[in-house]
Amino acid sequence: MSSVESHQEQLSQSDPSPSPNSCSSFELVDMDTSSLYEPVSPHWFYCKIIDLKETWIPFNSEDSQQLEEAYDSGKDCNGRVVPTDGGRYDVHLAERMRYAVYWDELASEVRRCTWFYKGDKDNKYVPYSESFSQVLEETYMLAVTLDEWKKKLESPNREIIILHNPKLMVHYQPIASSDEWGSTPTEQGRPRTVKRGVENISVDIHGGEPLQIDHLVFVVHGIGPACDLRFRSIVQCVNDFRSVSLNLLQTHFKKAQENQQIGRVEFLPVNWHSPLHSTGVDVDLQRITLPSINRLRHFTNDTILDVFFYNSPTYCQTIVDTVASEMNRIYTLFLQRNPDFKGGVSIAGHSLGSLILFDILTNQKASSGNIDNEKGSPSIIMDQGDTATLEEDLKQLQLSEFFSTFEKEKVDKEALALCSDKDLQEMGIPLGPRKKILNYFGTRKNATVSVKYPRLIYKPEIFFAFGSPIGMFLTVRGLKRIDPAYKFPTCKGFFNIYHPFDPVAYRIEPMIVPEVEFEPMLIPHHKGRKRMHLELREGLTRMSMDLKNNLLGSLRMAWKSFTRAQYPALQASESAEETEVEAESTSEKPNDGNTEEISVAVKEEIPSINVGMLNGGQRIDYVLQEKPIESFNEYLFALQSHLCYWESEDTVLLVLKEIYQTQGIFLDQPLQ
User: Fold this and answer.
1) Could you tell me the CA-to-CA distances from 135 to 35, 114, 141, 149 in Å, in that order?
2) pLDDT digits 0-9 by tens, 529-541
3) CA quadruple 77, 80, 85, 88: dihedral sign
4) Taking each helix axis from N to C terminus, what angle separates 595-605 and 576-586, rounded to the nearest 10 degrees?
């Protein structure tokens, strides 16, 4: 007698009709069922490797239905390709494989699933193979039709599945004999739960995404391959950002959705880290890396050194070429797959990624012409502080007597930087002064990173920077002030969004208006108003100041100042004047005697600030509200603050709000 037959006999003898008490690991429900057989409803899943473990994830309901329709079409499946996940993945039906469309990613196995099993230690149900699921379904059909249960069958890997009744089906793994470690057959033979149909397992199946795409946003990552504290890739983080946006569209743009005015915004990741580190630089670094503290040194080589790479002329060129070419490639592919797309394009960058995009945008050409590479740098259109004339430079070198010579030859500072020793000699400049001039202007020329910035084949509408060090890098480069009249050649909008505790983030507005001190715009909470702890803190501060300055004169008036609403944060993207009007119109009607007082207070809190044309006259710096727990220790949450933007509803809502405002579509209710 085989071991399988012996095991079957043991099962039938020891437990001919298992009771609920004797099968505590089984999921037992009411035994009553109809004797009529109904075919199982399949659902399609794909397999992902998460934490070195296979995890089966269901397609959303619309994608699964499309895959099932293609499967049932009866046509030859060899050439059938079904777009899924909003067109970001293609499923090759014959291969049962899922491929990423816009980025490099390992292909995932796809399966048409009808039967599932789960052990006591498993978190999720695992689908059986399609062929064995068919065997299970045929056995189940016979059992229901003939009303003959306790059916036993063997899986391909010689495991036993027993169908006791429609609600109680179990899967026994092979029972091993006791060994020197003392393991017993009871422990190793603990059964798994078997379920038929996806509706009988606990799994979240989401609805599909809107087919209409209103806007496309490219998202560029910062240093290193990981983008958050869970060490996830830019693809996974952008997936979160996209999911948050879909939820917010349903809650904050409900009217526009009901009127079919909007579809969704597509966010696509742009990866430049992998191409940079595939140039062979990692091998060169490994040769010179010390063997001690290996993990820390590997982390440094893989992440922090990206900042130094960007300041290197050689690798900076590689990075900007990769980012621009990837965005152009993805944009072209996107249009091919979405020929009816009529929306605009925006770009977003996190950390160093925002600086890369800033430099690319700065060096675009406003005129539509040949898409050629152009040499340039932010110094062309910004005040670097190096505004000295040629005459002043020569005076500093104590060579003022030669200014008339250069003036006669019509040689300015730029032309002088291109002159050779022979050129200066022909102009009659002696050897000593020649050496001084060549050294002075040659050093300045070499100090500037010479990079040819590629042209984008589209004009971005808005540039969003998350946790951006742009301000710091511009200052280090010697840029003391951004001309208020300056704006990107091809991009109208610019929003610098940051968490107040983000150690990498810097402001932009003080570089445009250095003579005025003012606060950034406070981003409203996605549920409205400020967080309670911030209102409490500011209310106490106002009450203290009012009492100190003897402005109210009574406890009643002090209490009114404590409960007075804060208005600067109501409409985050509007100008100061629009914010003031909104504040006065949305505030509660005060007592007649206090109307003028509150109006004056609001006007004092919202001064009119001109921050230039970099964001079309609107404010540029926008700060998130910290959570209550974060306010207890800002150092403890500093790193987390730099990586918080991917799942921040407040950040995503501001992005959606600004994008849809360009189309004349607004939030259902203004945030307060």
Assistant:
1) 20, 11, 10, 15
2) 655 444 555 555 5
3) positive
4) 150
Rounded Cα gap, residues 594 and 512, in angstroms: 37
- CA of 583: how far to CAs of 535, 541, 562, 586, 672, in Å? 16, 20, 17, 5, 9
pLDDT at 92 over 60: yes
Structure tokens at 311: 């300041």
62 has pLDDT over 50: yes
Instruction: Write out the two tokens for 467.
Output: 């946790």
Q: From residue 606, how far is each of 208, 216, 358 by CA, in Å?
A: 43, 34, 29
Closest CA to 58 of 168, 240, 197: 197
Between helix 352-362 and helix 313-337 the angle, nearest 10°, is 80
The residues carrying an active-site annotation are: 351
H or E, element range at 266 = strand 264-270
Spatial CA neighbour of 508 closest among 607, 661, 613, 603 = 613
Which DSSP category does 383 fall into?
A: B
Strands 374-375, 452-453: pairing kind: antiparallel
Cβ neighbours for 270, distance < 8 A, ≥ 6 positions apart: 218, 219, 220, 221, 234, 323, 326, 327, 330, 353
Question: Longest Cα pair distance anywhere in the chain, in angstroms?
Answer: 114
pLDDT at 516 exceeding the cut of 50: yes
**Does 593 have pLDDT greater than 80?**
no
Q: What is the DSSP string of 115-180?
A: EEEE-TT-SS-EEPPHHHHHHHHHHHHHHHHHT---EEEE-TTS-EEEEEETTEEEEEPPPPPP-T
On the question of pLDDT at 150 being above 70, the answer is yes
What are the b/e assignments for 307-340, b being 16+ CB within 10 Å?
eebbeeeebbbbbbbbbbebbbebbeebeeebee
Cβ neighbours around 7 below 10 Å, total = 18
pLDDT in tens, 238-263: 999 999 999 999 999 999 999 999 99
Give the pLDDT of residue 354.
Answer: 97
What is residue 382's predicted lDDT score, i.e. its pLDDT?
Answer: 44
pLDDT category of residue 119 using cuts at 50, 70 and 90: confident
pLDDT at residue 28 in the model: 39
**In whole numbers, what is the pLDDT of the chain averaged over residues?**
79
Evaluate whether 568 touches 604 at the Cβ level (below 8 Å).
no
* Contacts (Cβ under 8 Å, ≥6 apart) of 280: none
CA–CA separation, 237 vs 226, rounded Å? Answer: 9
Cα 146 to Cα 68, 164, 233, 478, distances in angstroms: 29, 14, 53, 86
Find the length of the chain. Answer: 672
* Angle of the 234-252 helix axis to the 649-661 helix axis, nearest 10: 70
Nearest residue to 346 via CA among 669, 654, 668:
654
Per-residue model confidence (pLDDT) at position 366 = 80
Q: How confident is the model at residue 636 (pLDDT cuts 50, 70, 90)?
A: low
